[in-house]
Amino acid sequence: MAWRNKADSQLPDIIESEAELDEILSRPMHETVKTVSQLDGDILILGVSGKIGPTLARLVKRAVDEAGLRKRVIGASRFSTLGLKDELEKAGVETVSCDLLDEEQLDRLPDASNVIYMVGRKFGTEEDASLTWAVNTLIPAMVSRRFRNSRIVVFSTGNVYPLVPVSSGGADESTRPDPVGEYAQTCLGRERIFEYYSRKYGLKTLFLRLNYAVELRYGVLLDVAQKVFKGYPIDLRMGYVNVIWQGDVNNIAVRSLELCNSPPETINTTGPEIVSVRWLAERFGALFRREPVFTNREMEKALLSNASKCFRLFGRPTVTLEQMVKWVAHWVLIGGRTFNKPTHFEVTDGRF
Ligand SMILES: NC(=O)c1ccc[n+]([C@@H]2O[C@H](COP(=O)([O-])OP(=O)(O)OC[C@H]3O[C@@H](n4cnc5c(N)ncnc54)[C@H](OP(=O)(O)O)[C@@H]3O)[C@@H](O)[C@H]2O)c1
What we know:
Number of helices: 12
Oligomer: single chain
Strand order of the largest sheet: 3-2-1-4-5-7-12
CATH superfamily of the domain at 12-161 and 169-211 and 246-271 and 305-314: NAD(P)-binding Rossmann-like Domain
CATH class of the domain at 12-161 and 169-211 and 246-271 and 305-314: Alpha Beta
Number of strands: 15
CATH architecture of the domain at 12-161 and 169-211 and 246-271 and 305-314: 3-Layer(aba) Sandwich
CATH topology of the domain at 12-161 and 169-211 and 246-271 and 305-314: Rossmann fold
Mean pLDDT: 96
Shape: globular
Strand content: 15-25%
Bound molecules: NADP nicotinamide-adenine-dinucleotide phosphate
Low-confidence stretches: 1-7
Distance between the termini: 38 Å
Order of helices and strands: HHEHEHEHEHEEHEEHEEEHEEHEEHH
């Protein structure tokens, strides 16, 4: 099924403002609007206030409006980021402040037939692993019980796979999980807990094993671009990565609601390229007219996924790597705002 529609061909050469960026990231595709119009019930996004959730919530609301529906679009999280709650409300997304570790607050959430689950904790695991286990495995158990009659798309991660030889082309969904480090172990735990309840209650669910969503305010491309721009050394040991434009991730997440199943479906979610970090730095170097500085050498293995199944189901991502590189380079050159949240993609021992 082809992904391209009229809206997708209307991508600008450069992005000049956050308003423009948010508009592009929250643009629903024709197929997404179709999915939303075929779903019964409301849509609830848990963990809405992170890096991906705000643009996903706006995209869902736009899809609902374009389909001429009256569905509620609700976003829940603790809203640690100031001002975000108001911004989402202005965009027509209902918001609920909720600490999902608190059973009573979870019980008070509105019912919804469709849940997109984005809750997670990664950084700080080395300092307090028990909290990471609680967020990444206990909340899934509580949410599975609370929303056992809903369909749930769960954001997971490619980190559940072991590092694989670059020559393998990346782990596919049949590769046995073998997570490196405690954060990644909790992510496999998140999947296993949802799977347990899926098998026990018939909960319809689906895992999106994502690696490296990219937009201009954070992501692997920004991390590499900033280092090249500032002349900081780039560690080449994790020498290859997969990336995907966050707007494509958002559309895939909504369209996946239709595919939730018991036992769960699993879909690797990333772009088609095995991107060489060295090549990426050199591309940015050419655009900035600066020579990148490298340390270490590429290992033979890397954290890589094969997303062929995703392309078969949803088509190829609409935004190319070349386009993302140009957008990010321009953003760095104009000093665009960032989230100041490095991905730490270069970590090879799984310690975050
Ligand atoms: N971004 C990527 O490239 C990437 C790659 C692989 C996997 N993923 C997965 O995709 C998901 C979404 O990604 P992201 O980058 O948006 O993650 P993120 O920025 O870490 O956001 C996590 C969300 O969880 C919420 N949360 C944490 N503890 C909570 C609690 N006790 N109660 C309620 N909400 C809580 C946070 O909001 P508050 O702090 O405001 O509550 C936030 O909204 C994550 O689970 C991550 O594992 C992302």
